[in-house]
Specification:
Number of helices: 13
Shape: elongated
Number of strands: 9
Strand content: 5-15%
Helix content: 40-55%
Length: about 325
């Protein structure tokens, strides 16, 4: 990659708040993005919509290039060196496991300028992963939107009110939060040493929810239900709303009631179809039973027979 300098320098590195400075001129950042995936493309487009010009992007795959054309029309696709040379804020939107090596490599190249904002959108990492950039004078921020992305313009409206897990040095928390607000999101501070736990929580909820719903639709299909999504939508919508509002007090169903016979029949049917599915049901039923007892929803005495049904798991070795 060429280290050729741009013909003109990016705007001054001066941004304390997305309001006004000087003679009433709005302060804006020249934004560059590395990784035009589903998240990077949408966040860059959101910053552009807020008035920060996106001046450069680095995209490798053909899909990423097509996405850049759709969401970031007119933005030049250049090498990483030019992204850093042309930008005041660089958004690094690469997979979690790749992020540390990308940051270390970029810092080794000497492309980072003192006072340059370097932002990533990984859920797993805080700002520690940006230490090589910070040592070169960068201002590090971790801004993770708590939502799933399609990588289309539809996501821009979905950012409205979207929570962001924000981790930044104390001196940059206000600036980081302001950027989130400009994108339409709601900043929520996450401590550096709790970042992995935070990510585990949101991934556990969202990703496993998708697996559970898809599995339930498959099972209903085996029952001859033509539109399982329509059957599940009211039930799941109410369950999610109630859980978010009331936590464990929203529990219903055979486990919360201690109906051991019903749970045993569920396991018999599921085991005949898939031992793996039966094992997942058993594990989640145990978790549900434990939480129901702890919250007072299920009497411990009534839980004895239920826990006995859940104790034997012939599929655990699969």
């Amino acid at each position: 990659m060429s280290a050729e300098q741009p013909a003109s320098s990016p705007p001054p590195l001066r941004w304390g708040s997305p309001r006004e400075v000087g003679e009433g001129t709005p302060t804006r950042l020249a934004v560059g993005v590395i990784g035009v995936g589903r998240a990077g493309s949408v966040l860059a487009a959101a910053l552009r919509r807020a008035g920060h010009p996106v001046v450069a992007a680095y995209a490798v795959s053909e899909v990423s290039r097509l996405r850049a054309d759709a969401l970031l029309p007119g933005v030049p696709l250049v090498g990483m060196d030019r992204v850093f040379a042309d930008s005041n804020l660089v958004l690094i939107a690469v997979p979690d496991d790749v992020l540390p090596s990308v940051v270390a490599w970029v810092a080794d190249q000497g492309w980072i300028r003192p006072g340059q904002f370097v932002v990533h959108c990984s859920g797993r990492h805080g700002v520690g992963v940006l230490d090589p950039a910070a040592q070169a004078g960068a201002l590090p921020m971790a801004l993770h939107p708590v939502m799933t992305f399609t990588g289309t313009s539809l996501d821009l409206d979905r950012l409205s009110g979207c929570p962001f897990g924000v981790t930044a040095p104390a001196s940059l928390e206000t600036a980081a939060s302001a950027l989130v607000v400009e994108m339409g999101g709601e900043p929520m501070l996450v401590a550096e040493d709790r970042r992995a736990l935070y990510h585990a929580a949101v991934a556990h909820a969202a990703n496993h929810l998708v697996s559970l719903v898809a599995e339930a639709m498959d099972l209903l299909g085996l029952c001859g239900v033509d539109e399982p999504e329509r059957m599940l939508a009211p039930l799941l919508g109410a369950a999610l709303d109630n859980a978010l509002a009331s936590g464990d007090q929203a529990l219903t169903g055979p486990v919360a009631r201690g109906d051991a016979g019903t749970v045993a029949s569920h396991l018999t049917e599921l085991s005949a179809i898939s031992m793996r599915t039966a094992s997942a049901y058993r594990a989640l039923a145990r978790l549900t039973a434990d939480r129901a007892v702890a919250s007072g929803m299920l009497d411990p005495a009534a839980a004895v027979a239920l826990l006995a049904v859940l104790a034997d798991d012939p599929g655990s070795a699969l």
